[in-house]
Task: structure prediction
Amino acid sequence: MSRTLTVGLLGAGLIAGVHARAYRVDPGVRLVAVADPAAGKADRLAREHGAEVVDGVTGLLDAGVDVVDVCTPPTAHAEATITALDAGRHVICEKPLTRTMEEGRRVVRAAERAPGLLMVGHAARFEPDHRTARDVAVSGRIGEVRMVTHSTASALPGWSEAGWLADPTVSGGPLLDQAVHAFDYARWLVGSPAVRVTCMAADSGAGPRTYTLTTVRYRNGALAHVECSWAHPAGRGFKLGCEVVGTAGRVAWSYDHLMGGVLHPRDGDAEWFDVLADRGFTSELAAFFAAVRQGGPSPVPAAEALEALHTALGALESARTGRSVDLTSWERT
Ligand SMILES: NC(=O)c1ccc[n+]([C@@H]2O[C@H](COP(=O)([O-])OP(=O)(O)OC[C@H]3O[C@@H](n4cnc5c(N)ncnc54)[C@H](O)[C@@H]3O)[C@@H](O)[C@H]2O)c1
Result:
């Protein structure tokens, strides 16, 4: 039996609570410390999980945790992640990797020199339906992937501390906070780097550029079309769906009307799969702890998350300028 891995949470907001519940599935993982400057939040989460409250990333390191789990807004990801990696700890960093490419590159370099593992929280890769569709695509059952259409639409998320999600300078709006999942997922499915991105966006009561339509071209010629909005009526709930079209079939899943996932091979009957199976956060964190115990590799390396960040920032640039962005030459510090 391997020794218990101790975890410290930086941030005690929405996703920190989800992570804390997911650790409990593994009897070999224990949340021991929580840090959050917002009054009472660390206290509540720590009490619920039998952990202590500490001050900042230094407090987590002083508590001797094996793993630092960075669940803050993205503007705080880089410094905390680099500090923890340089201190020899393993790190989970929520998506998006960072707020800027300059920060993201620094995190990638820190991960390369660190003895510990860094996983970035692109949880969509661990959702069973997303994963099934990707496995189908990679297996060749639908031939060569040529087009991915992905949609995420909701109202402006209302839970964030001091409203940081509604502040584009912190969150980057839906393109960086939400569509970054789709950019990571499509890149993972297509298996080729993004080379060009074009985005049109419209303002809404939820803020600037909150209806967004982005098209991405990949080096192997495949395309992705990503719809992402924070301007949908609140009562409509969360719309999430994806279709992957290959030269020999298509595979799709959707949460919109809970239709489930479906695979249409070129020959033979459609096959359905369940989109309401166990959700991804538990699998995501289990994959991370398994990787730590085995000595790697990271289930979602920083260098891959940096690509999704680059695409999202390129989409923001395209929406701002009205021009498409060549990602092979576009540099955003
Ligand atoms: N993977 C997913 O599907 C998913 C879902 C939701 C959020 N997230 C990501 O998780 C991160 C947190 O989002 P959230 O929804 O939990 O936000 P939140 O506002 O609910 O929680 C963030 C918490 O971080 C705290 N915080 C801010 N700066 C801090 C610092 N320097 N040190 C310690 N704590 C600090 C805030 O006080 C707040 O309590 C973001 O990067 C977000 O994009 C990922």
About this structure: The domain at 126-278+310-326 is CATH 3.30.360.10 (Dihydrodipicolinate Reductase; domain 2).
